[in-house]
Amino acid sequence: MTDAAIQRDLLQMIPAQLERGIPLIIGSCGTCGSNQGVDNVATICRSILKELGLSARIAKIYSEQEPAEIETYLKRGAVAPLAPMKDLSVETIRACRRIVALAGHIPFVKALEAGADIVLAGRATDTAVISAFALMHGFPPAPAWHAAKIAECGGICTEDVQLGGVMIDIDAGGFTVEPLHKENRCTPRSVSAHMLYENSDPFKLVEPGIVLHVNEAVYTALDERRVRVTGATAQETAPTIKLEGARHAGYQTVSFVGIADPGLLANIDSWIEALSIHARKRIAGVLGYTVGDYDIDFRPYGAGALNPLPAGTVPAEVGLMVVVTAETQEKASEILKLCNPLLLHFPYKRNAPLPSFAFPYSPAEIERGPVYEFCLNHVVEVNEPGELHRMVIEEAGQ
């Protein structure tokens, strides 16, 4: 989101929450949860408080990690990979531009117990943001975490996702969820289906220090709009925190071309294979670059780029994206410019009519700048669930 969009939302929420004494909790500020993202949202909050003549206690929870600190956990065998990652190395840690640790509910509870009106966190699990308040007040973990999971994306657990968020009411036996918009509905289907959202196992949710099991959960319609949920169980585990990090992977240039030639599209798999072989020979022969110097990827959207086509299917048209990644931007663009004549006139077989391709823009090459790859997706065993997160509290406003 842009700063203007964040300011627009906060301008509505801050005066309302301060008037009613309801804490405002925001996780993963700036999306990736960097320290910079937390500070940026804090700056916006201060500006709004000053503009409205209000004051508030702001708690900032920082999630970024020093590589040297993570190395100490690695040396004592406290770091394990999450599939499909492999064992972590010191070299990978040092290659990361940033490392963040996902906060569970404990840092949020500490902030609320410290009297924070506004809590701004770096990288955090979505469910921790919502479950923290209920857990702090002693509600059982199963309904607190299950309710948090269902409400994590607001209206996505409703029948009409465009009509805003939901209200959840947690008690010792379960929780009730209902949409805020009077014309929207929650149903057992819409609520239970949310366990599939961003979750590899719809019957199990893994959070820091806890695993939620919903195999026996019961979703009951209370009326046309509300659903009552019971039956989840929670299993406590050793405290672990998930680490995320990315490293620089070079520079990228892309091109996109539309193809509607029926003969080519009937043979697109073999055509792409031949195109790839021919392009690599041209790159080596003309530019002198070998395969290890760059990466080139042909992605035929509409013909198996995301999912395989059913056998015998011939698409009506295909958008071919060509992606080149190299050590420098100049090299990536140089390689793709060499390939573009091939994209204009590369027959699908010898003596076949030359196809016509449609480039939607000119010049055809788009430089994407530096690109990064996800290389750190591990968990670290900790002694205390909040030991990787640092909190700073400030009085802001009047």
Question: Can you summarize this structure?
Answer:
The chain has 11 helices and 18 strands. It is α+β, with helices and mostly antiparallel strands and 398 residues long.
Write out key terms for the chains shown.
398 residues, alpha+beta, seven-stranded antiparallel β-sheet, four-stranded mixed β-sheet, 11 helices, globular
Structure, described:
With 398 residues, the protein is of the alpha+beta class. Helix content is 32%, strand content 30%. It has eleven helices and 18 strands. The strands form four sheets. Strands 3, 4, 13, 14, 15, 16 and 17 form a seven-stranded antiparallel β-sheet that branches. Strands 1-5-2-18 form a four-stranded mixed β-sheet, sandwiched between helices. It has a four-stranded antiparallel β-sheet with strand order 6-7-11-10. Helix 1 crosses helix 2, helix 5 crosses helix 6 and helix 10 packs across helix 11. The longest helix has 20 residues. It is globular and about 75 Å long. The model has no long low-confidence stretch (mean pLDDT 94).
